[in-house]
Amino acid sequence: MRSVRSRLGVLCLVALFMSLAGLLPVRSATPATLSQMTEDGRQLYLRGCSSCHGLDGTGTPSGPSLERSGAASAYYYLSTGRMPLADEAQPRRKPPAYSRAQIDLLVDYVASLGSGPAIPEVHLETGDLAEGGVLYRSNCGPCHTAAGIGGALSYGRAAPSVTPADPVEAAAAIRTGPGQMPVFGPEALSDHEVASIVRYIRFLESPPTPGGAALGGAGPIPEGFVAWIFGVGTLVLAVLWIGKLEGGHGRH
Amino acid sequence: MDDIEPAATEEDAAPRAAAGERVVIAAFTASMAAALALAVVYWRGGQAQLEGVLLAISLGGIGVGMVVWAKRFLPSGEITEERGRMASTDDEVASFTHAFEQGEQAIQRRALLLKLLGGAVGALGVAALFPIRSLGPRPGRGLFDTGFRNGTRLMTVDGRSVRPEDLSVGGVVTVWPEGHVGEPDSPTLLVRVDRPELFRRPTRTQWTVEGIVAYSKLCTHTGCPVGLYQSRERLLLCPCHQSTFDVVEGAKPIFGPATRPLPQLPLGLNQAGELVSTGDYREPIGPGFWNRRR
Amino acid sequence: MNQPRPATRSRRLARWVDDRLGTAYLATKALRKVFPDHWSFMLGELSLYSFVILVVTGVYLTFFFDPSQAESTYRGSYEAMRGVEMTAAYRSALELSFDVRAGLVMRQIHHWAALLFVATMAVHMARVFFTGAFRRPREINWMVGVTLLILAVFNGFAGYSLLDDQLSGTGLRIGYSIALSVPLVGTWLVSLLFGGEFPGPDIIERLYVIHILLVPAVIAALIGVHMAILLRQKHTQFAGPGRAEGNVVGERVWPTYAAKGLGLFFLTTAVLAALGGLAQINPIWIYGPFDPAEVSAASQPDWYMGWLDGAMRLIPPWEVRAFGYEVPNPFFPGAVLPGVTFALLYLWPFLEARFTGDRSEHHLLDRPRDRPVRTAMGVATIAFYGVLFLAGGGDVLSTTFGVSVNAVFQAFRVLLFVLPAASAWVAYRLCRDLAQRDPAPADDGSVAMTALAGVAEDGRDQDDRAGHDGPEAQGQAVGKHH
Question: Does residue B124 form part of some domain?
């Protein structure tokens, strides 16, 4: 399992992954002073975000205030592509709209707007897989399902699949509670516990399937369809092969 | 029973028969090979997919072989058999009735003994029902109350007490009464809503603390834990049958089969600033039962 | 007699048995038994073979499974569960899956066989229904079959409830709440069943005995009864040349039908083995040990309980209150619906006889098209329970197709009534058209020799039938003459 020691490491890996995937050109961040960076971020913000979140980030009727979002929330939304919002009822995971460097600038700018959680550090090697499973099933499974494939909420909302899981994105989601998700602060889940959960989420990305095809991880519903379509279907074919097709209705 | 003998079935034309035989030979041979391979796989430590496939081949080989054999080489003529009638003839019924009634009359001559025998068997039957009572305790007050009392601290699953500031805005945590952590009848959900000013009846605001409200976690429909919190819309959802409860409106059901709100637990703070209950739930929690209101 | 052959060892053994039991007569009868050959008459065999496989794999599982509720810690080879506290039942199910050689494939074959046991029963029952094979004199066997269906569904539920994983515990909890909802006795009922309030200390060990001993024994006995009655009454057949109410036309059991039947047994087992090896079923290691304060989204029962779960989801929030007492909501979909369903199934042969006035004996089968009213009702029934079944997975469908859960359930509430009506209408029209194009074949009376009075009249009855519309058109009650 990959251990992540710093935020930088993750960023590099994510950037590398995305450039390999050909999703985005990677631009190297230009060295600049902090205030210069914040100013660059503000310019990006004004162009891409202010129409909903307001010129000063205090929100408008079409978008919430970002004063308490913090770096963690901005990082989560931008790097999973959930922001900027496309034509969709609920933010969905998409390829990010901004380059890694632009995301850094935006994150820094949003963080400067008020007080919010910083981007969490995840030390995967400190997490315990089995403990992560226990915590995942009691805190995350209720909405995201035990298999992590995502589940329905009410009135058109849905909890998304927890995979593919970048450790920092997953931890940021736990800490900030994006969208409908509840917030799990440091008093509810310690950093160590978050690391355990993230380890388990990454385990769910490709869990062992000793029994064969996982059937989407959606439980008895696909199992029932397989039983009827493959099982009953095959057996009825066998019976059609063995028995006579017409039971004496000779053509007159 | 006079059966009509089957029309003698001749072997099919020779090439067709030879082809059929080859299929059967191939099927039985494949079956044998798969069975041996299965033994080897098991002996080498086993692997579920290989085991399943090899078992399927070895069983399917026998099956295909037998069916082809039967269809090609076993007699397939149609036989007509007479069905005969189901019901007995009047004579048979009469002789049965006669035989039975003879004995019946002999028994009924001692009417008192017959009645006593009936009584004895009946009494034994009634007595034999009593051990059913051993299967479980009398349903007691357990359905009506939980471990929450005035001043009981609320504890998380790992045995920590909760202070209001421990719960992030938009966060939830499951708690139990101190001394009853993990017990199935009292999981309670603490929800800290982002805008406490939205609370309206039937929520009892005097039972909330700093925007934190406590509801029973057990659905009033079939008792599933209502563990899905939609923090933006402040809704609790039960994944079993999609009952949906509005947290700021006394957890009243707004969708699905649940008929009653989730009972609210009166909350307070103790001297040390920890969350406590100020009493038990005012009504039975969880699914309904016939005398719930008694 | 054939000319005597040299006595082999097997012949000597047969002789030895016959000297003591006199079996030759019955054995000959059995070998010479005639079975009509039609593919749809083999559907019931599929259930029988599934049951055999359930017993064989189930016995293997009992050697490793421990139904105890005692707390223990997992130390097996599945890393993501190591060190987790759980009951012995769940632990032994994990060990059975990961650390017992051939354990997982056996468990999966067992579970797939359970799904197919009920599924093939349903298909077999549909065949019997749509061809009218339940009519006199086969009402008793129909009722035995309905009982087998109920027992199979119940034992399936009992079986997957044993493992004490999160999903099975959720199912048990819903079962508990349904039992609790029964007026007047609900509180006592659950206390006696579960040994106390949910989850109770006893339910899994009790279900274990019920699942592996009590219900299988009753199922085995009833299968025996089912087949004994079948042998006694002889199989039904479709009308056709040479076929009459008074005869059976088909193949002898020995050797052709026996070989085909045994071949089908192996093929059934092969399909189940392939499923058991290639398609993962009930991955309890993902669901985790049962904790009564937890639940997972997308909690569904196995398919044959899906219609009940669907009804539990679709019912509006109604409950009845009277004199300070209440009838909770789960009572209606959880207890009344299955009660009415199975009562109607039990009574169907008698209800149909009453409505059509046809109380005569039938050994020739109907083609579904020749009984459009019955066929339409059967199709409507399948549509009704099909909608309930899909509603049981409404939340999974909602995420799969990206539709709001609430919209899905509102749609199902409408479909529950519209779809059966529409499909009944389509089925009725289709039957009428088909029957007009291809009238029912007449009974071939030339072969009906030495027919008894009643049977012969039935035969003529068949003649009359061609061109008639439905069961209600066939008014004349032809009683048996004694």
Answer: no
CATH number of the domain that A174 lies in?
1.10.760.10
Taking CB atoms and an 8 Å cutoff, what residues of chain A touch C131? none
List beta partners, residue B264. B215
- A246 in any annotated domain: no
Residues 391-410 of C with CB under 8 A from A: 392-393, 395-400, 402, 404-407
Q: Which DSSP string do the residues of C97-136 spell out, in sequence order?
A: HHTSTTHHHHHHHHHHHHHHHHHHHHHHHHHHHHTTTTST
ipTM of the complex: 0.92
Pick from A5, A21, A25, A27: which is nearest to A167 by CA? A5
Cβ <8 Å between B171 and A212: no
What domains, with CATH codes, occur in chain C? 35-308+324-343 (1.20.810.10)
Is the pTM for the entire model greater than 0.95? no
Provide the domain count of chain A. Answer: 1
| Residue from the list A200, A212, A227 with its beta carbon closest to the beta carbon of C303 | A227
Interface test with C, best of A196, A234, A239 (most C CBs within 10 A): A239
Interchain contact, B49 vs A212, CB within 8 Å: yes
How far A218 CA sits from the closest chain C CA (Å)? 7
CA distances (Å), origin B177, targets A48, B218, B219, B271, C420: 49, 15, 18, 17, 50
Q: Measured between CA atoms, how close is C311 to chain A, in angstroms?
A: 16
Do residue B35 and residue B158 come from a single domain? no
* Residue C241 CB neighbours (<10 A): 14
Burial category of A92 from C-beta neighbours within 10 Å (exposed 0-12, middle 13-18, buried 19 and up)? middle
Determine the distance from the C-alpha atom of residue B152 to the mean position of all C-alpha atoms in its chain, rounded to a whole number.
Answer: 35
Q: CA–CA separation, C181 vs C177, rounded Å?
A: 6
Structural domain including B222 reads: 143-278
**Contact yes or no for C112 and A145 at CB 8 A:** no
Q: How far is C327 from chain B (nearest CA, A)?
A: 6
- Residue B43 dihedral angles phi and psi, to the nearest 5°: -65, -35
Query: What's the rounded Cα separation, in Å, for the pair C172 and C194?
Result: 10
Of C401, A163, C408, C170, give the one whose Cα is nearest residue B226.
C170
pLDDT in tens, chain C (482 residues): 455 566 689 999 999 999 999 999 999 988 998 999 899 999 999 999 999 999 999 999 999 999 999 999 999 999 999 999 999 999 999 999 999 999 999 999 999 999 999 999 999 999 999 999 999 999 999 999 999 999 999 999 999 999 999 999 999 999 999 999 999 999 999 999 999 999 988 999 999 999 999 999 999 999 999 999 999 999 999 998 889 999 999 988 889 999 999 999 999 999 999 999 999 999 999 999 999 999 999 899 999 999 999 999 999 999 999 888 999 999 999 999 999 999 999 999 999 999 999 999 999 999 999 999 999 999 999 999 999 999 999 999 999 898 999 999 999 999 999 999 999 999 999 999 999 988 766 554 444 333 333 343 343 344 444 444 444 433 333 333 33
The domain total for chain B is 2
Distance from CA of C90 to the nearest CA of A (A): 15
Q: Does C116 contact chain A (CB < 8 Å)?
A: yes
Residues B150 and B241 in one domain: yes
Asked whether the beta carbons of residue A247 and residue C395 sit closer than 8 angstroms, the reply is no
Q: Does residue A238 sit within a domain? A: no
Sequence-distant (6+) residues with CB within 8 A of B42 are B51, C101, C102
Answer yes or no: is A227 within a domain.
no
Q: How many CB pairs lie under 8 A apart between chains B and C?
A: 289
Which of these, C104, C269, C285, lies nearest to B50 by C-alpha position?
Answer: C104
Q: Nearest CB to B231: which of A138, A177, A241?
A: A177
CA distances in angstroms from B135 to B73, C181, C202, C205, listed in the order given? 60, 19, 9, 12
Residues of chain C in contact with residue A129, where contact means CB-CB under 8 angstroms, are 79-80
